[in-house]
């Protein structure tokens, strides 16, 4: 909650500071305008249209600043609500759309689509340095299916829990590549706000709240 309060305070404080500067500039402008009108040459009066345009511009900017302040407050409230929703998912397994794969307790899951133009999918898992850890081709079924990774590499050695990169390439019956959509499943271990965005943590992996696609089975 402290992060939420801090972010809200910062946004509101910035808007308030900008509004105060605008108000001060407008007061200064009005004082200068009054002085200039009092001392103008009657034979060469100031252009009334120009003065009106300047006043309208100041008023428009002030209204925009007020609108921005309101929008920032609404955005902060929305993000606070999302953070509460994300925090309620802690301990639950969720499917997210990302090219990262969280290995948790020696377990990871990639959710594959039903067969279509792609008849099979080649799954490649790499570590943080880009080294290939595991590669496997999986036949797609008539419905969506899940591929489970037991955390072992191509040599049968168990890899440590962490954040891995995953690539899924669809293959047609002619063996040509076909784009496919997929998600990964992991257990939510935390939620937080960062740079104005709500993030969900799944072990070593953090993803944006907007990448959540479904609440997965507890199994």
Task: Provide tags for this entry.
219 residues, alpha+beta, Immunoglobulin-like, five-stranded antiparallel sheet, 13 strands, 35% helix, elongated
Compact description:
The chain is built from 2 helices and 13 strands; from the N terminus they run ααβββββββββββββ. It has helices at 2-38, 48-87; strands at residues 93-96, 100-103, 108-112, 120-126, 132-139, 145-149, 162-171, 177-178, 183-187, 190-194, 197-202, 205-208, 212-215.
Question: How would you sum up this structure, described in words?
Answer:
This protein has 2 helices and 13 strands, in the order ααβββββββββββββ. With 219 residues, the protein is of the alpha+beta class. The protein folds into 2 domains: 2-87; 93-215, Immunoglobulin-like (Sandwich), CATH 2.60.40.4070. The strands form 3 sheets. A 5-stranded antiparallel β-sheet has the order 6-3-9-1-13, with no helix packed on it. Strands 2, 4, 5, 7 and 8 form a 5-stranded antiparallel β-sheet that branches. A 3-stranded antiparallel β-sheet has the order 10-11-12. α1 (2-38) packs antiparallel against α2 (48-87). The two termini are 31 Å apart.
SSE map:
Layout: H1 2-38, H2 48-87, E1 93-96, E2 100-103, E3 108-112, E4 120-126, E5 132-139, E6 145-149, E7 162-171, E8 177-178, E9 183-187, E10 190-194, E11 197-202, E12 205-208, E13 212-215
Antiparallel strand pairs: 1-9, 1-13, 2-7, 3-6, 3-9, 4-5, 4-7, 7-8, 10-11, 11-12
Major sheet characteristics = 5 strands, antiparallel
Tertiary shape: elongated
- CATH fold descriptor of the largest domain: Immunoglobulin-like
CATH first level of the largest domain: Mainly Beta
Structural class: alpha+beta
Q: Tell me the helix content.
A: 25-40%
Beta-strand residue percentage: 25-35%
The DSSP helix count reads: 2
| C-alpha end-to-end distance | 31 Å
The CATH architecture of the largest domain is Sandwich
Number of domains: 2
Q: Which strand order spans the largest sheet, edge to edge or round the barrel?
A: 6-3-9-1-13
Indicate the multimeric state.
single chain
Radius of gyration: 29 Å
Counted beta strands:
13
Order of helices and strands: HHEEEEEEEEEEEEE
């Amino acid at each position: 909650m402290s992060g939420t309060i801090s972010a809200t305070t910062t946004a509101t404080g910035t808007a308030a500071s900008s509004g105060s500067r605008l108000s001060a500039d407008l007061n200064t402008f009005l004082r200068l305008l009054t002085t200039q009108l009092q001392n103008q040459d009657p034979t060469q009066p100031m252009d009334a249209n120009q003065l009106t345009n300047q006043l309208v511009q100041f008023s428009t900017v002030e209204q925009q600043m007020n609108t921005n302040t309101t929008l920032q407050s609404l955005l902060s409230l929305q993000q606070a609500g999302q953070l509460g929703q994300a925090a309620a998912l802690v301990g639950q397994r969720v499917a997210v759309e990302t090219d990262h794969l969280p290995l948790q307790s020696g377990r990871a899951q990639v959710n594959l689509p039903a067969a279509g133009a792609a008849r099979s999918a080649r799954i490649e898992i790499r570590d943080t340095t880009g080294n290939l850890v595991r590669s496997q081709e999986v036949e797609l079924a008539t419905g969506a299916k899940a591929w489970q990774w037991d955390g072992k590499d191509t040599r049968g050695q168990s890899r440590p829990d962490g954040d891995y990169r995953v690539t899924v390439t669809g293959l047609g019956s002619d063996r040509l590549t076909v784009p496919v959509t997929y998600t990964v499943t992991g257990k939510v271990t935390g939620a937080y706000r960062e740079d104005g965005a709500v993030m969900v943590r799944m072990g070593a992996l953090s993803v944006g709240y907007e990448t959540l696609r479904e609440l997965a089975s507890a199994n």
